[in-house]
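@channel sequence for tomorrow's demo:
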Amino acid sequence: MHWKLPTWLRRFFIPRAPDTAATISYETKLMAARARSILWALRPPAFDPVTARYASPGSALLMRQQLAMTLGHLSVDQVAAQRFDLTAQLRERLERELRVPLTYTLGYLCQDGQWLCCTPIAGLEQMLRTGIAPDARVKLHVWLTLPSHEIIDPTFWAVLPAYACADERKNRGLFMHPDQMLGRSYHPQWTGEGFVRRIGLLKEYDSW
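structure tokens (generated this afternoon):
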């Protein structure tokens, strides 16, 4: 469905070599992902960017406390398997603690020249058309984006522990602006929970 987008946005949906894709700004990729989500009637949340950044010793401490409460009792395998649900849960808790809207963001990563958790957009769009088999394993990652475009990634250390840095494994999460990342880039494909809800990857809970 990306052919419905303006040409300047459509070009960001074409699979690229990792080193080429990494040169596109996170802000542009996020805007394209939100446009795609709107086209597929997934009702993504509003996103109002700001220039100020939220990462600080205080906010990092709040994040670590919430990660410890939410993930501390789970094994690495459980965190990896439940990453879509856990990130949705953390979004609500962190929004209350940080007092800032967080955008549930789906996509893939590139680290040290390798694509990680990457499914081409054509394959993801096919899932929206036909659904997926029960218990299917989908190559897709999830993280949270702040209005500053800073990223909170609470599960990468469990999904791909060999690629996570020591601090990320210790803190059970990452809180950083894409501009500060060395050797890793995030590539949004969808924003909001609409995609994972529609294909059945995100469960409903009465309370968290």
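heads up for whoever presents: DSSP finds ten helices and six strands in the chain.
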